[in-house]
Fold this protein.
Amino acid sequence: MARTFWTTVKILLKTPSVLIWCIAFPLFMAVMFTAMLSGISSDGSVDPVPVAVVRDESWDGSGFAQVVDALAAQGDDQLLDAADVDSLDAGVALIKQGDVAGVYAVDATGTPQVTLAPDGYASSSASSLSGTILESVADGYSQNRALFEGQLRNNPTALANPSAITDALSLSVGTERLSATRSTPDEAVRYYYALLAMVTLLVGSQTASSSVCALQPNVSVLGARRSVAGQSRARQLLGVICGCWAVSFASSLLTFCLVRFGAGVDFAGREGLCLVGLAVATLSSTALGALVAALPLRGGAETRSSMLIALTMGLSTFAGLYGQPSMTLADNLARACPAEAWLNPPRLVSDLFYSLYYYDALAPFALRVAACVGIAALMFGVSTVFLRRQRYEHL
Amino acid sequence: MANVVCVRNLVKRYGDLLALDHFDLSIAPGEIFGLLGPNGSGKTTTINCILQLLTYDKGDIELFGEPMTATRYDLKRRIGVVPQQVAVFDELTVRENIDYFCSLYVDDRQRRSRLVDEAVEFVGLGDFVRFRPKKLSGGLLRRLNIACGIAHLPELIFFDEPTVAVDPQSRASILDGIRRLNNEGTTVVYTSHYMEEVEQLCTRVMIMDRGRPLATGTVEELQRSIATGEKIRVDVDGMGQATLDRVRALPHVLSATLEDDVLSCSCENGTSNLSEVLAVLTADGVGCGRIVCEPPTLNDIFLEITGRELRD
């Protein structure tokens, strides 16, 4: 059996179609996803909002000037990109040129005045958001200023307490920030998990299908030679399956490493458990390939391989692999038929990674691992029944 | 000693087609048994049934005196099979292929290594052990195919047309190897369309057609079993149809043909066939050149028993 195992590994690693489908294709997909999804990840960051500042006497002495200078200081959290102008007219001219999103000025009482670009002057898709940011900064300053002036009038001694000032400026006094999930939800993660699910199913089923076909006399001449050998079919099947699983696991691991370390996808710090997940996912995929190869179907290894590719790609739709429409379809199906999430291998595998990502408890993960192992055992059992005592009407 | 192969009353149907019709076969230890028949006669079906690759409708199959079933791995370990098509892994080298197929019979690594070396030497592939099958010629591939089937030193080997599409040198080498195996005590079941191979190699021959054995015995026994006892071939000059008709009319001549100035006659057993034919030719003034007189070959026996009509 050990010899069959190593021979299977060696053969798979030297088979061009296996190398293409099980190593090159997943890696290509991972790289493609990384390139496509880097846009989604960067969408959350905001570029500094260009704003003109009317730097006159009122401005120089105001508290708002200090706020704007602080927000325009260069750094990772820079919010504003301030440009000094002599007058409001000069600032409006910059708005018309599309160089800034608005103009800040301060009146004689020190109150901020905001002039925003009208919609017709939107110089970029971010203009409406930029205007909102400029307004929020000015409004926030005005509210805090009014708060302090009220305190000064009504209870001046309270301002002597620094913690009271901090509390007054903070929203956290009456609220507590809680996370419902272990990790922050990230849309890109769903694509990568679906990709991993597709890869495990593809490599596991393809390697097992081609290898188990080579055990069957009605599909391959090698199968005839092996069937008349002195080693039982069950032992040969076990050796072949173990070999296929090892190659599939290695291939999935390669994709996982690329996703984890190349694309920087978060697995909630549970990489070790992810490997367990990959192991059982490839096991169930290998079992599916073995089952399809063992079924008494017409056609040879190529027919079965094509069936499995179609099945993999089709089922991956319901794991949300193909973008937003696919995800919406997957979500709708999951709501209408919850059992699908347990019966569809790509969905089950992507949920397996989700359960590690979102849940603190490991029970959901363990449940899905058990489901994968159960499905694998069932499919291996049926495959063995088909193969063990198989004799043929025709060859 | 019990027969190595014993098939009784074997019936195999492919739908409405009766592939094996109450077929019986016995092969004694140490024989090289030739299984001959036209295409579709049931040779490969017989072997596949014996090896339990195919289901069959009726009959008993015993190997080494014990009932053969699909899970009799103890019996399968004593058998080697060299299939008609080359069945090796393209991804493995010559040595890896032989080692893998040997490992399906022999677990012990050291013993297996020794057996693989012997098999490589036996088929003369010593210079090609690191080659992959795609780099080998047709003859070398056939030899690799044989090595994969014999490396575990089986007591009974089935060779299913092992010399198809190989050159005369490789064929001679393969046949010589089979003789050596037999000399070491291996029983061989050999199917081929090459009559001269079977004639040279086999100690006993069965000619089968339409799923039935038509004749079984040594080549000499088969020669005696047919009507033709002697074949006469004469290079003639100026022979006409009238002379040919007179030759055909001779009492012991079964058939006579004239093609390209060569007269070919099939005659019954007799002591004066040649002199009678030559007397007719001399009387008609036909010039004679080279004269060949010989007993019927296995090919003649085969054609006489199975007929000359084309098969699928």
Q: What stands out?
A: The mean pLDDT of chain B is 89. The first strand of chain B starts at residue 5 and ends at 14. The two ends of chain B are 39 Å apart (CA to CA). Chain B touches chain A at residues 14, 48, 51-55, 70-71, 73-74, 76-77, 79, 81, 83, 85-89, 91-92, 96, 99-101, 103-105, 148-149, 152 (CB under 8 Å).
